[in-house]
Each structure stands twice: as structure tokens, then as C-alpha cells.
Amino acid sequence: MINTQIVPDIVFRENVEELNPFAIAQTQLDETAAVLCLEPAVHAFLREPVRELHVTLSIRMDDGTSKVFKGFRVQYNDARGPTKGGIRFHPDETIDTVKALAAWMTWKCAVVDIPLGGGKGGVICNPKELSNAELERLSRAYVRQVARILGPEMDIPAPDVYTTPQIMAWMADEYSVIRGQNEFGVITGKPLALGGSRGREDATARGGMCCIREASRVLGLETRGATMAIQGFGNAGQFAATLGQELLGAVIVAVSDSRGGIYNPNGLKPQDVIAYKKRTGCLTGYPDAAPISNADLLELDVDILVPSALENVITAENAPRIRARISAELANGPTTPEADYILQRNGVYVIPDFLCNAGGVTVSYFEMVQNAYDRYWSEKTVHERLDEKMTTAFHAVHDKAQELGVHNRLAAYSVAVGRVAEAVKLRGWV
Ligand code: NAD
Fold it and tell me: How far apart are CA 112 and CA 362, in angstroms?
């Protein structure tokens, strides 16, 4: 049974916009529970992680002193398979961010229908202030503490903000030492030489481009020559720029990073911008473009907006001024629940984060499959299988939005939560 009446009351019950990521994740689930008329016990179970491990790590620094770091690993829900999710090394990491990201991983794996649950990990640290040797000791110490709940059949981490393939290699090695045998399948995002998958590097942006292509088809928008603005110019944003041009024929008119952005209505050359950022460390001063602030970039009159940086950048305050036809969320959590309703009212077609950026975890799952069989696929095979998964997931969400008459995020939640709830019930957990 479907109940769509209850949704706006739930969303607008507060005057102050909630920006705590875990509170937002719970609000989004509450809306979905109302729409799906989810059994109260199942709803209550899905509101919290099933497991949460807090660890304290003492690391020997290069100068001989010891420093203490706090870390977390959250396993949100493993009803559909082992939990999966990245590890962040960030000075502002909080348990609430990790819990929210673990919840979103659960819905992400379910929406693309891969047999995995959702998890996330983090260490409060600033990797930019650590030497390579200190970073290695921290990575290995983290694995020693969380190894008791990791494993290819239990929980499989991956890289996330400020963690790299090298860090994944140290972690896979440390886990293998603990187990007394090679266990490369315990982690994904590894270098190719240690069982990584071809096509992982650009998988997040590539999956997002499949979603934009399909969204354009259902909206009757021609992607060739469509204008695109990208906020955030790291892994996700840079590949969005190159693949947006290469695969969709889009014209990239604006990009930004933490220090500001650049704008040229006639189009930027993504490869040149990437080379410039590599050379100078920022975008400012790039020739043939005007400076633009991050706030103004979001409000540009473009066909496609691609938030690829941070959480909570589209809120009730600026949502009324967003003019893009499509907002393709490569970042996690860029839009608040209130903003979602404003965008829907204004006809902005949102491709929600855990659908739009699911290409990364999909290829991570492909990496696990290749590790398990010890047989490795060509890049072409990875691209084809990724496209198939993303296209199927996009249409499942689009069709659900039409069926229920709700915005796309709520539709994505309905697909994903419905699948997880079914597994929870079938296993007799609730
Ligand atoms: P990254 O660290 O490589 O890049 C982040 C970019 O955001 C950098 O260019 C940084 O300068 C920019 N940035 C930081 N603060 C900003 C601000 N205030 N305004 C504008 N830009 C700012 O990270 P990434 O891997 O590209 O991830 C970006 C987002 O995509 C995150 O939300 C992440 O969770 C999400 N995501 C990434 C992947 C992946 O495979 N890389 C997968 C799923 C989701």
C-alpha cells in the first residue's frame, strides 16, 4: 500500500533546516517508511546501524613521540550481503558523518542491486600533516583494530576522501598478515598489480554520465552541446568534465574547487584545466575564463549541474535560484531534504547521490568478483557491465518516481529500502 499524503508534513515539521548528515539520512528514511507504509519494527531497525566500532590508535611518529587518533567502522546493514564502504582520513570526521555515509552505502548497493550491504569507516587525522611512513603505520594500526569485523565475506572497505590505492595496498597486506594468507579480496580500490580492477578510477563519474544520458532521454534533452557546470574538481569532478565532453558531447562551462571556480560560456577544455590545476594547485588564474564563486556556479543557467564536492551545498536558501534542468549528484548528500521539494516544484530533475555516484561501488563489486575467481576483465567489459547496471538502476528509480508521483530521491529510497526490508523480513530478523 502506498501513502504519499504524509510526506510534506514530515519534511516541513521544523523551521530550522537540519544539517547533521545522520539526522538527514534518518529523515529521508522516515519519509520513505511513510510512503511505503513500512512496518514500524522494520522502520525502527533500519534507522540505526547494526554494528559500530570505535577504536583508539596510538602511532609512533617519525620524531619518536606517540600520537593518539580516533577511528570508526560502521556496518549499517548486512541483510543483503557483506557490508561495503570506504574509509575516510579527514580532520573533521565525525561518527555521525560515518553513520550517514554507511546508511547511504546500504541504499546505494541496494538501488544498483548488487549483493552487498552498507558500511563506512574513518580516522580523525590530517593526512597532509603525516609523513608517508606515519601514514603507513596509521593505516596498518587501523586495520589491526578493525580486522575482527572485516573480511571478504563480512565487510570490505575501499578508498574514500584522502585515502588512496597505496593505503588500500598497506591495509590489504596487514589483513593478510593477520590471517596468515593472502586476502586481497578484503579491500577494493587496490592498485592493478595487487588485484585491482580496470576501470575503477573513473567509475563514479562514468556511472553518473550513464544516468545523465538516460535522464536526458526521458526529458527529451539533447546532451550534445548541452552546458554543464561542475562543483568540485577532484576525482569525481575531473572525470565528470572529461567524460561529460567525451561521452555526452556536453560543453563544460564552469568548474570549481575549494578555492573558487572558473567560467567560460563558450566552453572550457577539460584536459587543459586539469593540467593547469596539476601545475598550479588551483583553478584561479586559468586563462580564457572569468572567476566565479562556488555559490554562483550552482545558480548558473546551465542544462546540467554536477555537484561533486561536499554535503549540504543546495539548501532551502539557494534551491529556489537553481536553474539547471538536471542536477546530477556525484557528491554524497549535496541536497537537503527541504531543497529536494523546492527543486521538484521548480522542475529540476535530480539524479540522487546514491544512484548517480553508484558507479564506484559497482566497479568495486566487480573487483571483488574478479578477486574471487582470480580472472581479470578487460576495461571494455568493465565499462559495458557498469553501463548495464547503471541504466537498469536509473530506470527502476525513474519508473518508481512516476508510479508514486514523488521526487527522484524518494523514489530511489523506495526502491532501495524496499529491497533491504524484504531481505530483513526474509531472514526473519524482524
Ligand atoms: P576529492 O577529494 O578527490 O575531490 C574533492 C573536490 O572538492 C576537490 O576538488 C576540492 O577542492 C573540492 N572542494 C572541497 N571543498 C569545496 C568547497 N567548499 N567548494 C567547492 N569545492 C570544494 O574527492 P572525490 O573522490 O572527488 O569526492 C567528491 C565527492 O564525491 C564526495 O562527496 C564523495 O563522497 C563523492 N563520491 C566520490 C566517489 C569516488 O569514487 N571518488 C564515489 C562516490 C561518491
Answer: 8
Ligand 1: centre distance to CA 308 (Å): 5
C-alpha grid cell, residue 51: 554494528
Cα(347) to centroid of ligand 1, in Å? 26
Give the H or E element holding residue 332: none
The backbone torsions φ and ψ at residue 82, rounded to the nearest 5 degrees and listed phi first, read -55, 150
What's the pTM? 0.92
pLDDT per residue as tens digits for the range 99-146 = 999 999 999 999 999 999 999 999 999 999 999 999 999 999 999 999
Q: How many CB atoms neighbour CB 228 within 10 A?
A: 28
Contact 321, 299 (CB under 8 A): yes
Question: Which domains does the chain show, CATH number per domain?
Answer: 51-194 (3.40.50.10860), 203-356 (3.40.50.720)
List the beta strands (DSSP E) in 211-354: 227-231, 251-257, 260-263, 290-292, 304-307, 326-328, 349-351
Q: Give dist(CA 139, CA 57) in Å, integer.
A: 10
Three-state DSSP class for 385? Answer: helix
Q: How far apart are CA 125 and CA 138, in angstroms?
A: 10
In whole angstroms, how far apart are CA 302 and each of 84, 185, 415? Answer: 35, 42, 29
Give dist(CA 120, CA 115) in Å, integer. 17
Q: What is the pLDDT of residues 288-300, one digit of tens each?
A: 899 999 999 999 9
Q: Does 232 contact ligand 1 (Cβ within 6 A)? A: yes
Give dist(CA 318, CA 393) in Å, integer: 29
- Residue closest via CA to ligand 1's atom 16 equals 258
